[in-house]
Predict the structure.
Amino acid sequence: MKKLGKYSFGVGDRFMQEGPFQLSAFMAARELGVEITPVWNKSKREHQTVGTGPKTVREEADSAITSANWQEPYFVDADHITYDSADEFVPYSDFFTIDVANQIDAGVSDEELETFKTENDSYLGDLHIEGIDSPFQITHQFLELVANKYYRAIKEAKRIYEKIVAHKNHDQIVIEVSIDEVDSPQSPLELFFILKMLGEAKVPIRTIAPKFIGRFNKGVDYEGDLNVFEKEFEECLMVVSHCIANFGLPPDLKISVHTGSDKFSLYPIINKLIKKHDSGLHLKTAGTTWLEEVIGLAEAGGQGLDFVKEIYKQAMDQYDKLTGPYSTVLNINKNLLPSFEEASKWDSKKFVNSLNHDKNHTEYNPSMRQLFHTAYKIAAEKQDEFFDLLKVHKDLIGNRVFKNIFDRHIKPLYL
């Protein structure tokens, strides 16, 4: 079986220019004795926005790996694929994030419900999970809820998995199931039954991406009660261990945290718990590298700063179009967005301070940062100019990309 490793980290690179700098962060971690597997990820939505395809992600990853003489495993993720989109990713990917969100809450037939209840009646009453102090309470009503929410989703995961392995050796790929892009989080008890059904369906998942309690907004820190998150995350780790032991799931199965970039308040909690329970972790990022490119151009001044200001102007003009697809993972206060007339007068320092994720800085503007997170479509439409600027300021931006991944993400999460 192709080794994913105990710790892995998904790096998005929307414009595929920063692969070597991203990889250098993993090399730095390795020099400190921590093995983290890099996984380059890019979704169909992002490909469509910037006019690329799955082949380009494979080319970027392979090029970075070859240039650095990286000898350890690495992966290319077909990010958030459905049954219909899987075909275009299969030739180039070896990590598959199967997204079944559109099948959650799909309901079941009376016959399916009765089958599910019969198969799980033995769990009625108290369910004890090693390490969790209080037992979970399972009722007929709860079993009906689980069936209606997840039965069809698990069938869909199996259908997509079978489509993938019709073309790929199952020992050479990693399967992740994503259930995070929904309105409501899954409880640890719901995760138990999800994993049980996946085990019974013989879908050999290596990572599972639930939706956690609280808000995971794009490009900014976690919003929610840290104590509640800590309790539920720890229970999820123990549920995963229990399900590995009881349902024939791969022994290296681990939790995957999606929209994981910039969740700085969570990293000490996650670090503590994965070490306490000797658990693995996959964390997936996306737009954080794009934001470092923007901030780097703003820092460079001159044409770089002018380009960033033009992106902001068009982002304000196209606000609804840009933010609409991300509405469930944004929390923008439009009243805190400066007008373009005001922002156009800013110098490099002001722009950098506004966009750089430093919650203690008085000029940090998380609403503006979130808007820029969605504005990569504008840069894609000006790609020639954008790429020329990235080349001119390659070292400045590359240093930011490295420090962002290594110092702000990898170190507090895994070291």
About this structure: The beta strands are 7-12, 36-43, 75-81, 95-99, 125-127, 136-138, 174-178, 207-209, 254-257, 281-284. The radius of gyration is 22 Å.
